């Protein structure tokens, strides 16, 4: 008897996406062999993780050293009252495996820093930036460039969201290409200070999962764009075209990687 390329159960579990034109059996095989690192299991990371896990990603790394708080539950949908006080990475893993016990999940509760980022993230095909602070964005972008991996980056605050894929394809820009000068910490507010509508993080996090799936299944067109979302605008989405990679910032051999103060900062 010919061996099936996927377990028999998977044909039923993932059948609705496998019948899509351009996806098919090969798309599901690609997902089953893929590994994705999600940095941050909060407002963005929870919906991204939920849909990546449901889609059948072969291996998922969840990186978050924070613990669940009651104030998180308004938007961080993988956590619940029973997991308050638990590491977010462990709580998210528990929630995902309740839906699919066969998922292979690495729950990492140590902080990612400039000293360990390359080691921790090198084993994954794609990195998702679901964090909420600027220094980490630069750190993850530099790490993605050094490793030659795509970075699917999301951001959300108040009624606004943003999505961009960095380091994708031969000419994809990195975060430094778009934002070469880091803002002053005094000019950057947090969700705790400015607020966040929970559904906004759901929209952006789901889009991060969608773009990741498109990349892994060959459905992505490698367009260099940034998607801007505002919940109070009509239409709510704007798309901005981005310039191609700037070698000054996107060359892993550039000496700036060694001297940048951003790389000295941790999550």
Structure notes:
This protein is an alpha/beta fold. It is built from 12 helices and 8 strands. It has an 8-stranded mixed beta sheet with strand order 3-2-1-4-5-6-7-8, with helices on both faces. Strand 7 and strand 8 (237-241) form a beta hairpin. The N and C termini lie far apart (51 Å). Mean pLDDT is 89; it is low at 252-267.
List the helices and strands and how they pair.
Elements: H1 8-13, H2 15-18, H3 24-33, E1 35-39, H4 45-55, E2 59-63, H5 88-99, E3 104-108, H6 117-121, E4 126-129, H7 134-147, E5 151-157, E6 160-166, H8 175-178, H9 191-194, H10 198-216, E7 225-230, E8 237-241, H11 247-250, H12 256-259
Parallel strand pairs: 1-2, 1-4, 2-3, 4-5
Antiparallel strand pairs: 5-6, 6-7, 7-8
Helix pairs in contact: 4-5, 4-10
How many domains would you count in the coordinates? 1
Radius of gyration: 18 Å
Q: What form results from the Cα inertia axes?
A: globular
- Helix content bin: 25-40%
CATH topological fold name: Rossmann fold
How far the N terminus sits from the C terminus, by CA atoms, comes to: 51 Å
Task: Write out the strand line-up for the largest beta sheet, numbering strands in chain order.
Answer: 3-2-1-4-5-6-7-8
Annotation field: number of helices: 12
Mean pLDDT: 89
Tell me, what is the CATH class?
A: Alpha Beta
Uncertain residue segments:
252-267
Q: Describe the biggest sheet?
A: 8 strands, mixed
Give the structural class: alpha/beta
CATH H level, superfamily name: NAD(P)-binding Rossmann-like Domain
Strand percent estimate: 15-25%
What is the N-to-C order of secondary-structure elements (H for helix, E for strand)? HHHEHEHEHEHEEHHHEEHH
Number of strands: 8
Protein name: THIF-type NAD/FAD binding fold domain-containing protein
Subcellular location: Cytoplasm, Cytosol
Keywords: ATP-binding, Nucleotide-binding, Nucleotidyltransferase, Transferase, tRNA processing, Ubl conjugation pathway
GO molecular function: ATP binding; nucleotidyltransferase activity; thiosulfate-cyanide sulfurtransferase activity; URM1 activating enzyme activity
């Amino acid at each position: 008897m010919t061996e099936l390329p996927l377990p028999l159960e998977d044909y039923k579990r993932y059948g609705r996406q496998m019948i899509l034109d351009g996806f098919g059996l090969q798309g599901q095989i690609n997902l089953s062999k893929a590994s994705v690192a999600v940095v941050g299991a909060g407002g963005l990371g929870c919906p991204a993780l939920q849909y990546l896990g449901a889609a059948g990603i072969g291996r998922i790394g969840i990186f978050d050293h924070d613990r669940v708080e009651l104030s998180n539950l308004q938007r961080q949908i993988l956590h619940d009252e029973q997991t308050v006080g638990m590491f977010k990475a462990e709580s998210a893993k528990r929630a995902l495996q309740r839906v699919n016990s066969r998922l292979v999940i690495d729950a990492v509760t140590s902080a990612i820093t400039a000293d360990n980022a390359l080691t921790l993230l090198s084993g994954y095909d794609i990195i998702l930036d679901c964090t909420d602070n600027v220094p980490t964005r630069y750190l993850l972008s530099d790490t993605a460039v050094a490793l030659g991996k795509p970075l699917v980056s999301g951001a959300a605050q108040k009624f606004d969201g943003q999505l961009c894929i960095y380091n994708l394809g031969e000419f994809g820009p990195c975060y430094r290409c778009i934002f070469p000068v880091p803002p002053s910490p005094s000019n950057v507010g947090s969700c705790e200070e400015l607020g966040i509508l929970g559904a906004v993080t759901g929209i952006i996090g789901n889009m991060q999962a969608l773009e990741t799936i498109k990349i892994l299944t060959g459905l992505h067109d490698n367009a260099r764009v940034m998607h801007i979302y505002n919940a109070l605008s009509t239409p709510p989405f704007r798309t901005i075209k981005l310039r191609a990679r700037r070698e000054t910032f996107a060359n892993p051999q550039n000496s700036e990687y060694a001297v940048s103060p951003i790389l000295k900062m941790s999550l």
